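Troubleshooting log. The previous structure file for this entry was overwritten by mistake, so regenerating from the original sequence record. Sequence copied from the archived sheet and checked twice against the printout by T.R.
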Amino acid sequence: MLGWSIGALVAGGFLVIGGPQIGVLLTERRPTTLSCRALLETGTRARWVRLSGCTPAWENARSFKDRRFREGLYVPLGAPGNNGTSNRLLARVETAGDRNAGTWEGLLDVRETEKRPPFASASTRILYVDRPDAWEVTVSVAAPVLYAVAGTLALRRRARRKAALRDVARRFRPGRDSLPPDLHVLNLDPLLGARRTIRRALAATVAALVLLLVPGLISLQGTPSPLMALVATVSVAACAVTLAVFWWKRSPTTRRLAIITTLAFILAAVLIALSVASARGNRAEMLVASAFAAALVAIAILTMNTRRRLLLQPDWARLADVDRGVTRVLARRVPRHETLRRRPAQIVLYQSAALAIVAVGVIVALLTRVKPLAWVAGAVGILLWRRARRHASLDAREVQEKDPRPPVVLLRSFADDELEMSGLPELMWSPPTTMSWVAAERLASIGPVVAVGEPGEELPPLGPYRLFLPAGNWHVEVERLIASARAVFLVLGRSQGVLWELERILARENPGGVTVIVPPAEPGDLEQRWEAFLALARDHRVWRLAQHLDPTALLLVRPMDGRPALAIAASRPDGAAYAMAFGVCAALEAGTLQPPIS
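Regenerated output below.
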């Protein structure tokens, strides 16, 4: 969702930049030829003109700087006998432009994001001789078209996936409505919906800041007034505080919603008061402040209603215990097992290269005023820094020597290491949100998460610590690892190794400490994985209960010693849902959430 929102902003930005040029090209098709004298005496309604017989007053030209050029000139144009000192017609040109041009072609009074020069009067006509620009027009058209095509294809894929999942759910639906008493289903939808609202409120706050405040500041002439400076300060402070609240791990969901609601109402009241107090000020500034205040009020109402609906849930007492337990266990300090001594040459090389590329990119962007260079350099630097972290990560044996806690074992098919998840608040510098990485992050509070490394894998991705086993007797080592583990998490799969591990787990008399994860695979693959699991678990006294569950909305199944088995479900099994489900398991293991939770 975040990626699509950013894509919409980028496509819309390109369309805004090239929109005026596109409109002129569609309405006029070709430039209108006339003389400077005719333009100055009678005027014209044409927006795309080719002027002849102009006398430029280069000695009266005024320089400017903007995001498009390093520097340029506003040159007064006049008719023969008039040296153009009246500034009735200005030509906007590059500094290195042709000073002997006989004709002046461009767009008349069609500006985009540039400010009108302060020395130009209201009646001054401005000719942008560098427009229409073929490159800008092409990009302005191509970006929204590509975004629309990609969005259409994504929606079609999503519709096909939903239809296939409905077919899978219908196949395994018998017995689902009458759950046995020794099976309990925990639905995380209310908590997940509230947390999605929090993320949307934060995204809306940042979007309001970008779309309402920044264009207002750009449109102002000269230095912003104290009102706009205060609005900018308050807005940035609001975003910073809201982000701090969002990442404050000790805050349960209802408290986060209450704090965001209160903060948004207070900031909206401050901005409205400032707008009323400056009624005689710049109307553009008042409009920006009022619009941002209205956006804050809408955010406050949204979060307030979400909190009210959450508190009115029939099973809110149970969900509140779950929320508090997960919050407490995730707030614990987790040791990071990374060392520079592992591969010092590679680590120092990648980190130095990352810092150097970012520094050079920022400096070049500032000097050339080409800001995308800074973004490209930042992206490359982030990739190199991630590579350095992968070199610094220890393997499982070294971690077990440093960390005395029993390990948390993650059994999965090697292909599932690349199983990516959506729905998590991703940042550019965050590692890829794969299932293995989410499990390692959420379960690290109860022990180091260990997974068997793929043979021949020289540089494993970030996530669980890898344990590399000999090819001959890996079965014995896996059994020993399972026996010494604090908890075992098995991702359903169809590979021979995963099926063997599943058989060994099902053969245990006491299934406690084992959790079976249903991955967000494609519908056909999910159906085959679930069928293989049911075939093996048909005669088991606990795992056979899974036949009453719908795999399309199931996150994981966990037997509870002496209590009903726990199945955690969500209608949208995305990354946020799995992260919450792993948090529930960690809270149960750590004791911050006491069973039974029903």
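Residues 31-132 form one domain. Archived copy saved in two places this time.
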